[in-house]
Backbone:
């Protein structure tokens, strides 16, 4: 289905979704992220092409290495955590990206400020906007 989309359309979709995503390939190299101007965790463009381990403080490297190993091996397909940051609730999820045969292609990180989402109660139907 992606063949039906242009590069411009794919880039616009990735910039429009209300989630920050980053992709680290199967060699643990940072390859992509969206929301360059509005990211919660800002990154310099020079990070693309670098080993993900070089983008984290030494104090967290053991956790980064364990998470990547678990996703690569299939021990986990995802992991999630949340933090309080400057009065906001930030939800961070990691997903193993696999091809149709199950081969590990990399890790997708999805980060979202869920502060306002957590306040939602009841329901609002689409025709009630």
Residues:
């Amino acid at each position: 289905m992606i063949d039906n989309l242009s590069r411009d359309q794919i880039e616009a979709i990735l910039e429009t979704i209300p989630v920050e995503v980053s992709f680290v390939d199967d060699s643990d190299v940072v390859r992509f992220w969206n929301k360059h101007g509005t990211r919660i965790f800002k990154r310099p463009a020079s990070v693309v092409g670098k080993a993900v381990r070089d983008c984290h403080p030494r104090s967290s490297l053991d956790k980064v290495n364990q998470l990547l190993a678990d996703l690569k091996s299939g021990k986990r397909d995802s992991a999630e955590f949340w933090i309080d940051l400057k009065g906001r609730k930030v939800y961070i999820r990691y997903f193993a990206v696999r091809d149709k045969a199950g081969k590990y292609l990399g890790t997708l990180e999805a980060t979202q400020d869920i502060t306002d989402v957590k306040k939602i109660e009841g329901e609002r139907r689409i025709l009630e906007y």
